[in-house]
Amino acid sequence: MPARLIRRMVGMLVAAGLTLSAVGARADDMLVFAAASLKTALDQVAMDWGSQTGTAVRISYAGSSSLARQIEQGAPADIFISASVDWMDYLQHAEMIRADTRTNILGNRLVLIAHGRNAPGISLGPKTDLPGLLGDGRLAMALVDSVPAGIYGKEALSNLGLWDTVSTRVAQTDNVRAALALVSSGEAPFGIVYASDAVADDAVSVVSTFAEDSHAPIIYPAAIVRTSMHPDAKAFLDFLISPAAVEIFRAQGFAPLTGQGDG
């Protein structure tokens, strides 16, 4: 990847407030590790929770893979919200979460976005000329072998027979919001993100939505981390599926999964 793109990505990551390590927090604050795609909606949910309860919630956003590994290494999180059941499974198998608190809270859709608000739609199929559409640019995606949005995107492109045509033209980022930022800024003409990410940014257009059967179901499970001692962790977890939180998530392009069982 060109050095200019890398520098730009780092700058945008910092500007977006995303972090790959636990944020500083007081001992009585609740610390939530959450997939980067949740940022816009979860910031509002946490703000509402804090206003209602007086309990501060600090949130560390990053790719689910990075957060899971930090928890495995002893990072002091109270709650983990993943964009993939696989990374929650990873921690559950390592006995790093309280399995009885694990709940599927949200679903999402995978979309192809373009820079600008009025980009024309694209019909995705085996004959789509993605390299031609990219021109001299690159396709922005989260890390395709570890970050859920990237994994879903690679799977969808592979099932459409398009991955081999663009695999060398992908600008991979540490998380999906960094991929969104590349397209938003015009550094990349197209990107693959979640529908909720597109809702959060006025500088991009959804030009196509991937068929749900082109990739594994996009599910966000949440659970309390085994080492958490915070007395309000369960209450906040319950708040994530409350009517107030569901309204916020839905407005931001998520599909709440309340009442659909554990992950």
From TrEMBL:
<protein>
    <submittedName>
        <fullName>Molybdate ABC transporter substrate-binding protein</fullName>
    </submittedName>
</protein>
<keyword id="KW-0732">Signal</keyword>
<feature type="signal peptide">
    <location>
        <begin position="1"/>
        <end position="27"/>
    </location>
</feature>
<comment type="similarity">
    <text>Belongs to the bacterial solute-binding protein ModA family.</text>
</comment>
<dbReference type="InterPro" id="IPR050682">
    <property type="entry name" value="ModA/WtpA"/>
</dbReference>
<dbReference type="InterPro" id="IPR005950">
    <property type="entry name" value="ModA"/>
</dbReference>
<dbReference type="Pfam" id="PF13531">
    <property type="entry name" value="SBP_bac_11"/>
</dbReference>
<keyword id="KW-0479">Metal-binding</keyword>
